[in-house]
Amino acid sequence: MTQSLQFKTASLRNTLKEYLLMAFGMCIYAFGWIGCILPAKCVGGGATGLSLLIYYFTGQTISVGVMVFIINAILLVIAGFIVGWKFGIKTIFCICVLSLAMSTMQALFTLPDGSIYDLFHLDDRLLSSILGGIFAGAGVAICFSQGGSTGGTDIAAMIINNYRAISYGKIVRFSDSVIIASALFLPKEANIGIDGVVYGFVMTVVFSYTVDMLMTGNQQSNQILIICRDYTAMADAINTQAQRGATVISSKGWYSKQESNIVMVVCRKRDTSMVLKVVKSVDPDAFITVGSVMGVYGKGFEALSKI
Predict the structure, then answer these.
(1) Are residues 26 and 46 part of one domain?
(2) What is the DSSP track for 157-198?
(3) Do residue 129 and residue 143 come from a single domain?
(4) Residue-number span of the structural domain to which 97 is assigned
């Protein structure tokens, strides 16, 4: 009973830690947009960038946080009917925290004349877009490291991949480019201009680089080899808890001359920490190797037809 209670307590503590870190990451992400990008009259990609476009188009009458929630909710409903209702609670949690954080920050930073207070007093829009990209990228990296997701493009990619095998990176690049370029059609009263569009692309590049740097290239893939005592329990836990595929490979330790089995997992680098947490919870003494792979082709990764 004592060991069971300790296990449940440790599991609850880890879960609480994950959700607190995801909430912290979403607050940093929200600050990058509301505290840096919005005061500089810049744009960006993803669901948040689309929300910002709508915010400018409607004359700044609708909160950015509210639009983020509405867009993600619509995408979730559409994806639910097309690919099934298999969204993690972490994705819904992150979307709700992000929307709440953005709405709260926008209310706090809005001046009596309707403008957004610039906390850093940066007169250079380029510096503001770079700083916003760094904050937003750091927040997303923290969220990804705990198995969370900001929704938006992730959900759109899930919907598109149900009909066409297109890589996640291509979907992100295309959607971000379309959203940012659409700022050229905003009313002149929005004061975005061509320079705001250029800074939007700069922000997106900085954002992507920050996430990749902190996540060690999260759009790439890792191959994880796990040698443990109970390979059945390990493979089942990876399937159910990490929601990733696993392959069991027969092997033989040449030093011990003992037959054994290796559990192999191939996943995105941003999902590696989540898989390792599951492995640790099942067998803290497991022997693990993690290696980068140059290319992964098949369902859930790059389509073989795209080579």
Answers:
(1) yes
(2) HHHHHTTS---HHHHHHHHHHHHHHGGGGS-GGG--HHHHHH
(3) yes
(4) 2-215
Contact 156, 149 (CB under 8 A): no
177-185: Cβ within 8 A, 24+ apart: 177/45, 177/201, 179/43, 179/44, 179/45, 179/46, 179/49, 179/50, 179/53, 180/43, 180/44, 180/45, 180/49, 180/204, 182/53, 183/43, 183/53, 183/56
Nearest by Cα to 107 from 99, 98, 120, 116: 116
Tokens found for residue 59: 């004359």
Distance CA 90, CA 96 (A): 10
The answer to whether the beta carbons of residues 148 and 93 sit under 8 Å apart is: yes
User: 163 and 302 share a domain?
Assistant: no
Q: Is 82 found in the same domain as 198?
A: yes
The string of pLDDT tens digits covering residues 121-142 is: 767 888 989 999 999 989 988 8
* Length of the chain in terms of residues written: 307
- The residue type of 130 is I
Measured CA to CA, the distance from residue 103 to residue 107 in angstroms comes to: 6
pLDDT in tens, 203-255: 998 988 888 777 654 457 889 999 998 999 999 999 988 888 899 999 888 88
Last residue within a domain, chosen from 215, 232, 261: 215
